[in-house]
Amino acid sequence: MKIKEAQTWAIKKLRESQIEQPEISASLLLAEILSVAKSYLMLNPDQLLTDNQEKKYRSWVLRRMKHEPVWYITKHVEFCDQDFVVNKNVLIPRPETEILIELILNQVKNKKLKIKSPMQILDVGTGSGAIILTLAKQFGDYSSNDSEKFSTNNSSHSSSNNKYYASDISDKALQIAKKNADNFNYRTKILFKKGNLFEPWENKKFDYVIANLPYVPSDKMSELSLDILNFEPKIALDGGKNGLEIYQTFLSQATDHLNKNGRIYCEIGDKQGPNMTKMAKQFFPKSQVEVIKDYGGFDRVISIQNS
Q: Does residue 255 share a domain with residue 172?
């Protein structure tokens, strides 16, 4: 079977299974098997697949026909130009979450944050570790040749001494986060702990607290696409009644864990800005609260600055 023939077959099968944008899935899966860029498929339509390649492609397309996400099939996804391992135990990092990363980096660059180095940065509900690892890399704190062990010694104020923390309620999610940290050579730079919200961080305070917690209202879960509903972990999606139950607990605990002038950044649902702002003011009455919209004009991130 040639590349073009394989794609034509896959697109037909995926379309019959009502997979959205079947052409994209067909191309991504085949490009992964051939270890080439998608553009290569267009430039080499008559290249023959080996028997093993064709067999694997057929099996992957059959999995995709059942709405299994492409990234779970290939076992990795690109986020902020970096490659992350994923599986069914973690949410797939999405482009919307990159807005959160961009916001933090821009505020640091523009010196809008009155925080002295070294910074204490916590990622609550880390999942794949994509957020905390991206921040560590973007802040330029760690190189592949750095063997510095994690330490709570704050005697130095150089940016290279920033401290990174990450936690998750799921053991299996933490395994993936640690695997990604290993792949980045960042394992010794980030302290990982298991626990619910701030439970693992008793008596510890932070300058940045980032959280991408469940925010889908329970009565809206059934409206999610089959890709998400049938495969991604429900524990990372269901935010309870009105979608903000977990965030309410999170904010109530955060009051004891945020340094003066520290900031909280949370990813939220597309219409949750007003309710989340009200909740933030309840727990941080003197704070500055800002809702940031995504590129579609929907609420996506809330920033809370302590004072």
A: yes
Strand partners, 265: 210, 303
Q: Are 49 and 99 in contact (CB under 8 A)?
A: no
C-alpha count within 13 angstroms, C-beta hemisphere, residue 133? 30
Distance CA 270, CA 215 (A): 10
Is 112 domain-assigned? Answer: yes
pTM above 0.70, yes or no: yes
Domain membership of residue 51 as a residue range: 3-66
The Cα-based distances of 133 to 1, 10, 136, 182 in angstroms read 41, 35, 5, 10
pLDDT tens-digit readout, 138-161: 886 543 333 333 333 333 333 458
Residue 70 has a pLDDT of: 98
Task: Give pLDDT tens digits for 290-302.
Answer: 999 999 999 999 9
Query: Is 62 in the same domain as 93?
Result: no
The domain total for the chain is 2
C-alpha 72/C-alpha 23 separation (Å) is 18
Structure tokens at 185: 């050579």
* Residue 193: closest CA among 120, 266, 91, 122: 122
